[in-house]
Predict the 3D structure of the following.
Amino acid sequence: MSADPVPLRRRVAAEAVGTALLVAVVVGSGIQATELSNDVGIQLLANCLATVFGLGVLIAVLGPVSGAHFNPAVTLAAWLSGRRSGDGPSLREVAAYVPAQIGGAITGCLLANAVFGRPVPAFSDHDRSAPHLWLGEVVATAGLLLVAFGLNRAGRANLAPAVVAAFIGAAYWFTSSTSFANPAVTIGRAFTDSFAGIAPASVPAFIAAQLIGAAVGLGLLALVFGPSARQAADPSVPIAAVPAAR
C-alpha cells in the first residue's frame, strides 16, 4: 500500500468528478456531432474521438488520486479480485465509490444537456433492447476488465491512459452496443434525449450484461495471467476507467 494514502473523501470526490466529466464528454460530443453532421458514421466517429481523448486525460489526471475507476463494474471487480491478497478496495471504499460514480454520471449528463440548451433532464427514448446489444455489452465489459487489470498484472499500469482509452475507442466500432461497458454511465445516459442516450427501460438489461461481462473479464484475466500473477498494491495506480467506457 502507499505510505501516504489519499484520504477517502478525496478519492470519492475524484471518482464523482471524473465520472461526471466523462459523461459530459460522451453526451456533449454526441449532441455537438448531430448538430454538425447528418451522417451517422461521422457522428459516431466524432463521439468516439472525443471520448478517447477525454478518457485518456481523465485517467492520467485522476488516476493518482482514486485509481480512475469511474465505473462500478471496475470497482466491484477490483474488490472481488483483491479480497484474498488485500490489495483491492475495501467494502467501505466500494460503498463510497459506487454512489459517487452514479451521482457523477447523472450530473455530467445534466450538465451536457444544459451546455447545449437541451431540457434538463430529458429522458431518452432511444430503445437499446436487443440480445445482440446485450452480447455487445458483455464483450465490451469483459474486454475492458481484461485490458485494465491485465496492465496491472503485467506491470504496465503506467500505460493505462493510452491503452484503456484506445480499447474503448476500438470497442465503439467492434461492438453492436457501441460499448457503454459501465453501469454508472449507462444510468447517466438515460437522462439525455440525444445521440448518446438510452431509454430508461433499456438500462437494467444493459447493466446486467455489463456485470456478466465483468465476471467473464475476471475469468479471462485468471486464464491468461494465472491466479498468482503479480498485482499492483498501490491504490493510487490507475487500474481502469470507462465508457464508452462510457
User: Anything to note?
Assistant: The two ends are 29 Å apart (CA to CA). The first helix runs from residue 8 to 36. The chain has a mean pLDDT of 91.
